[in-house]
Amino acid sequence: MGVRDEAAAIAGEIAELRHAIHREPEIGLDLPKTQAKVLAALNGLPLEISTGRELSSVTAVLRGGLGGPVVLLRGDMDALPVTEETGLPYASTVPGAMHACGHDTHTAMLAGAARLLSARRADLPGTVIFMFQPGEEGYAGARYMIGEGVLEAAGSRPVAAYGLHVTSQRLPCGVFSTRPGAMLAAADKITVTVRGRGGHASTPHQAADPIVVACEMVTALQVLVTRKFDVFDPVVITVGSFHAGTADNVIPDEATFLATARSFSQESRSALAELVPRLIGDIARGHGLTAEASYSSEYPVTVNDTAEAAFASETIAAVFGTERAELAEFPITGAEDFSFVLEQVPGAFVMLGACPPGADPRTAPTNHSALAVFDDSVLADGTALYAELALRRLALR
Predict the structure, then answer these.
(1) Which of these, 295, 302, 393, 374, lies nearest to 18 by C-alpha position?
(2) Labelling 221: which of 11, 55, 70, 253 has CA 20 to 30 A away?
(3) How far apart are CA 160 and CA 307, in angstroms?
């Protein structure tokens, strides 16, 4: 029986683990219930298991009987602060928390792959690190795990690393997608406070209104994108939070807003870090106000190694057929902290369509939506891909 058939044979158990994790979502770096479920799923397998010091991570090392190189497989485990509205029988029982990005599927698939590969331990031509990671959603959990030694867990560094991520829309169910080079964007945070002089709304000339100046800054940031950056090296700036004032007839002393900046090259990222604070300061001074603008680097660009992306595509085509192997034309403007791993280890990040059959991927609720649904039918194939990537890459030596 091949890997794909074996994964299909345990698909029910993979789904049970996924549903259990989905019912009890946890957010951030501290995921004790999720960690316990992963440890229970790995119990009895011939793995060297360690847990994190500063986060609820699980690192499992499988040493093959034939020696050889090391490959890392990663699955993230954390949920989002979203109240689920799917109505699924295994929907979240935790108010204000939901696996709206499908990390429960990644965790279950990686545990399934650990099971498949453990059964092949004697003939395994190398070592596999299974990286079960908390805190992908804005907490940089991968960076914490790297700091705690996940890349050295097997004694020598991996020659390749692979991550898998489901999507509830865009891709048809069961279709895999990857590309060489930039796969996902860098994500940085812009924090702005504009300080003026409050007063009565009926006499704005006697005050120094920070709201209109902050609004001008929001618009100017969009102009900055179109006039300072090459359209073929795109940048996205979106203001997601804006706060000022307490009443309709009061001009406040200050206004604040938060924005995210997405970029696909170090050149554009560096330019954003320089140009954004300068623009904010210039606009404030032009109106006789002051402003504080901080540009915080968060997640770097997720860059697929050219050779490893080609290897992943070839593996997908060989196992599932060419019709299920998409070569993505463009990178994704979302961000991923697997980027920290790929900064140090050549590898590839692969997307997997999990939009329920019968739903239109073009209009289905997106990842992070309270209505996002990830179909269980992809669990066996995601498990098989994790295992096949490790097996085939180790065989290359």
Answers:
(1) 374
(2) 253
(3) 10
CA dihedral 112, 113, 118, 123 (to 10 degrees): 150
Neighbours of 170 (CB within 10 A): 17
How many structural domains does the chain have?
A: 2
Return d(Cα 231, Cα 22) in angstroms, integer: 40
Copy the structure tokens of residue 341.
């791993």
What sign does the dihedral 353-357-363-366 (CA atoms) show?
A: negative
Does residue 64 come out as left (phi exceeding 0), alpha (psi in the -120 to 50 range) or beta?
A: beta
Give yes or no: residues 48 and 148 share one domain.
Answer: yes
Q: What are the E-state strand segments in the chain?
A: 48-51, 58-63, 70-76, 127-133, 160-167, 176-178, 181-184, 186-195, 199-200, 235-244, 250-251, 254-263, 290-299, 302-304, 325-327, 347-353
Tokens representing 360 are 């239109």
Domain end (from 283, 299, 315): 299
Q: Give the pLDDT of residue 245.
A: 97
For residue 177, give the amino acid letter: S
Whether residues 294 and 343 share a domain: the answer is no
pLDDT score of 38: 98
| Predicted local confidence at residue 59, as pLDDT | 98
Angle between helical axes of 210-228 and 266-286 (0-180°, round to 10): 150
78 with 137: CB under 8 angstroms?
yes
Domain boundary at 238, 272, 299, which? 299
Tell me the pairing of strands 199-200 and 250-251: antiparallel
Q: What is the mean pLDDT, run by run of 10 residues, along the chain of 397 residues?
A: 95 98 98 98 98 98 94 98 98 98 98 98 97 97 98 98 98 98 98 98 97 98 97 96 98 98 97 98 98 97 98 98 97 97 98 95 97 98 98 92
Residue in 22, 18, 168 with CA at minimum distance from that of residue 91: 22
The pTM is what?
0.94
- pLDDT, residue 1, reads 79
Give the separation between CA 191 and CA 216, rounded to whole angstroms.
15
The pair of structure tokens assigned to 224 is 């900055």
- In the three-class reduction of DSSP (H, G, I as helix; E, B as strand; rest coil), residue 246 is classed as coil
